[in-house]
Please model this.
Amino acid sequence: MMKLSLRLYTAVAYFQACFFSSFILLFVSIGNADRSDNRILLTSNDTQREKHGEEYCAMYDICGSRSDGKVLNCPFGSPSIKPDDLLSAKIQSLCPTISGNICCTEFQFDTLRSQVQQAIPFLVGCPACLRNFLNLFCELTCSPHQSQFINVTSISKIKENSTVGGIDYYITDSFGEGLFDSCKDVKFGTMNSRAIEFVGASAKNFKEWFAFIGRKAALSVPGSPYSINFRPDADVSTGMKPMNVTTYSCGDTSLGCSCGDCPSSPICSGSTLPPPHNKGSCLVKIGSLKARCIEVSVAVIYIILASLFLAWGLFYKKGARNSSLRNKPSMNVSNGGQVQQVRGKKDKNIPMQMLEDNPQITSGVQLSVVQGYMAKIFRLYGTWVARNPVLVLCSSLAVVLFLGLGLVRFKVETRPEKLWVGHGSRAAEEKQYFDSHLAPFYRIEQLLLATKPLIAHEKPPTIVTEENIKLLFEIQNKVDGIRANYTGSLVSLTDICMKPLGEACATQSILQYYKMDPKNFEDYGGVEHAEYCFQHYTSDENCMSAFKGPLEPSTALGGFSGSNYSEASAFIITYPVNNVIDKESNETKRAIAWEKAFIKLVQDELLPMVASKNLTLSYSSESSIEEELKRESTADAITILISYLVMFAYISLALGDTPRFTSFYISSKVLLGLSGVMLVMLSVIASVGFFSAIGVKSTLIIMEVIPFLVLAVGVDNMCILVHAVKRQQVELPLEGRISNALAEVGPSITLASLSEVLAFAVGSFIPMPACRVFSMFAALAILLDFLLQVTAFVALIVFDFLRAEDHRIDCFPCIKVSKSLSDTDQGNNQRKPGLLTRYMKEVHAPILGLWPVKLVVISIFAALTLASIALCTRIQPGLEQQIVLPRDSYLQGYFNNVSEYLRIGPPLYLVVKNYNYSLESRQTNQLCSINHCDSDSLLNEISKASLVPTSSYIAKPAASWLDDFLVWVSPEAFGCCRKFTNGSYCPPDDQPPCCTSSDGSCSINGFCKDCTTCFRHSDFQNDRPTTSQFKEKLPWFLDALPSADCAKGGHGAYTNSVQLTGFEDGVIQASSFRTYHTPLNKQADFVNSMRAAREFSSRVSNSLKIEVFPYSVFYMFFEQYLDIWKTALISLAIATGAVFVVCLVITCSLWSSSIIALVLVMILVDLLGVMAVLNIQLNAVSVVNLVMSVGIAVEFCVHITHAFLVSSGDRDQRTKEALGTMGASVFSGITITKLVGVIVLCFSRSEIFVVYYFQMYLALVLLGFLHGLIFLPVVLSMFGPPSRRVLVERREDNKSSASPSF
Model:
């Protein structure tokens, strides 16, 4: 069922890796900073030569460069100089706080400008932060008062030249705090994270940030070429004082920081966070005991009702006893006149003594109009069948066999999305829109390698060891060596994997820290390198992956707490594979072929390899769910077969007479029972054939469950029909017995069967296809089974009784025995009631007839119902993936490990339809979240929602192609959007053709020296590109590769986030903004997260008047649970109402129909209570079972109620007679037959059989038995409807009539 688990937990993997490539951070980023330091401490003479004061420089001009090309300042002071007008203008454009004289050459300024351009794309969204950040380095490089806060502390020798080796940079704490506060919340949308994580190594305060900036970078590693020691304590006596340029607050409205980048901004004060959902339930504390309010309320209600009922029972009994003493009844009916007076009149309580003492008086049943017609039709029909059994049998078999011809078009549906997602589903439509307009979600292949705890129930040891990493390299080598055969061609991982930025697969594994090359393991420093990269995966080029992007540790590690990655107990290896919409395409089939080879490799080679290292390995592929569902079709074949055999054996015994040695081979009904089972199978075949003929695909559960279900339901009618024929007087001819039996039980079995068919038919309205199809197939199968029972099976009864009367052996009807051998006990067998019948009439009924027992029974069953009502609130919606699969499936362990180890949530896309980017529209500001965007824009609202993840289920701000595009085209990001003199796109300086070096270090040539920024501020209107500018530059942005000089390039990160088809008209039909859900571990989390996302998008759509919808890969499978309670209650109400109407129409008794409906509701409520106790979740499968329970439970009620209606005497006598007549049939023919078949299902290998068919059906049978044979008789004896039996005068000319009904 669930592809979602193969996708949702690992979705972060690809996106966090490929959304931007090997961009190198600004020059303050560092690598192995402490590994290279050639500083020479200044001597006292050097120190004495320094001068600190205004208009004096501490390190003017360039005196050398390192071997990696980074320039180094001269360590000697000099007076500041006045720049020419052109240089002054250039400096003012970047450093507006510096005017007049300066302490930098033009080359120094150009170096500064090229370095800070790497940081600008991260911070330009918040101008206050960017201005403060630039001031920090402008003052360091060009301030005319540089010597007042810069002190050179060490000198390096480069080719005999002295260069700066280290400095002290004196800065006030107030500047540091202002800088950090303005930048700490600025987002970097491409990675769904904060910019401080990249430009400040996730610093928690300004001191940590300064410490990160001040580290000296190693050779060929981005960062400062010399160490910088930030200090607040300047020695005033030497003329020094800390730098304290004014800082700007991000809340300064003139600088326009967005709410997402600055939640404290005044424009955000009026924007409140979404109210958190109240997850807690109402609790009442009683001492140390805490109980839910509903539980306390139900308890109080029960106490009140039970007290009133018991009081009524005591007073009623006392009043009835006194009344009986005062009015002793006497009746003399010996004379004919009295008989004439009552003839033809109905009496509510006809005493049995009257019938016994007056042989001239008999009783008949006054049926309802419908029942009368049905009884009359059944009587005539029974006579006709008894006379023409061959015709009836052949014609009925011909019909079902004709329907079975549809099996030639039989097909089985195994695709999870076609089984569990309803047609017209909103989530399915949104998925189709997302796939067709943007791109389908990728396929996932995954391995989870984990350590075992040394001691049970203790934390497992870390998996980050040298031995385990080398083992991982061996595993990766075998995976790379897979060659799957598809139509004669070999398919490898590199043929199908996702390659977002080059030729390397975007594999998510810690091996990426070694560029997926085992040779780099020792060269990079072994395990220590991995542990180093856990903290510096965004800042050190040596930690970049082979596919040129950073790898977040949480995507490749599991089983850790917080950010303690070194404690991880699991490696998570994920292989994203290309996906397409057409599931029948060659691309999909090639991927499936590789996936099968991948699973085979794991099972044959990797599992033994891992087991030898005392580790565990769980695994999955995109096609695993579907393949395991197919395998499930044969997993329980033996179990189902045994269930059928056991039920067949029981049927054979139940249909036969009491075994006697002298005649058992005559009286047994083995052949009849086998014939009945065959009719059940034929009804299923006919049902499947009919729907196959009209193009409805079957499901595996239909083939496994429906035959059992129809058999369990159909056996009841078989037993009732056979027992009814046996009860007839043997003196009557066979056709008379058949006609009388059908007239007697025909209306009740029709009522029960029709109720079952209607109940199953209601299930066909459930939107989940698997359950809807199941209900349709089952409803038709039960209808056909009923029709076969009253046609073919009745004909078979005729043949079997003729066989027995002709003394032919059961199973071998061609063999006839001597009459003398089988006549010994024949007469007694037909008359003597069975043991179960005697128990019902002589033990069970008298006990239930005791008044105290009645009060106790009513009180207990009422308590059960009210307790179940309270427990219903504990039922959770959902369907665990593990339940759908066979118990021995390898996916069982995989799903368990996914929940245990993964620390990331599934991606969430907010999809915007028909975004109007024209300048005349305000939609750009309504969506974006950088400066000058609306405070209540979509992206700002997402950021605010991420602040309350417990209720919004949104973990991070969204990655915004729109924000990054607006930054990319802005003049401030001068290294991003550039053009040649001919107007064509010019890439950043560190990309070809601007950079011609093929190795890691890039040497700039003169090819791009004439490139200019795309726009000046004057080209924009209200700081936004015009419609034509937007239209022209958006494709440039989406094709631009991210790099060190411009990390905002959209290629890879946003390639599939914008639909460019038709965008030239000023409207982008579809675009998406990606964020993530919080980790979702329980089914309720998935349901609640989807509900929260829809509520959020609905609120934003209504506010902005822009159509926005949320999309995540699991939504399609969990949408049904949003309204599952509503679906369940409506379906149950319709099913119960249908049964009530059928009962009312057939019986014309509102009284008896209401009692049946009451008992049905109580059985359903109690079944819901059992579900809560057994932790059975509410889903389409359980809803179908509940709806079916209505039809099945009817059988426990309708036969007893019908027998009560047509019995004579007072209520107690009629209850006793009803139990004696139908109690045994209900117990043996309904209860035991279902128990026998259900119990076998507990041995099923599929958990779904055990939970939803064994546990639920067992509970239903037991509850039906208890309510039908205990509670219902008590209710009838106390509040039952009047009898339908009337007194009539026995006429001499009608003596031969044996009918008790008219």
Observations:
- The radius of gyration is 42 Å.
- The chain has 48 helices and 28 strands.
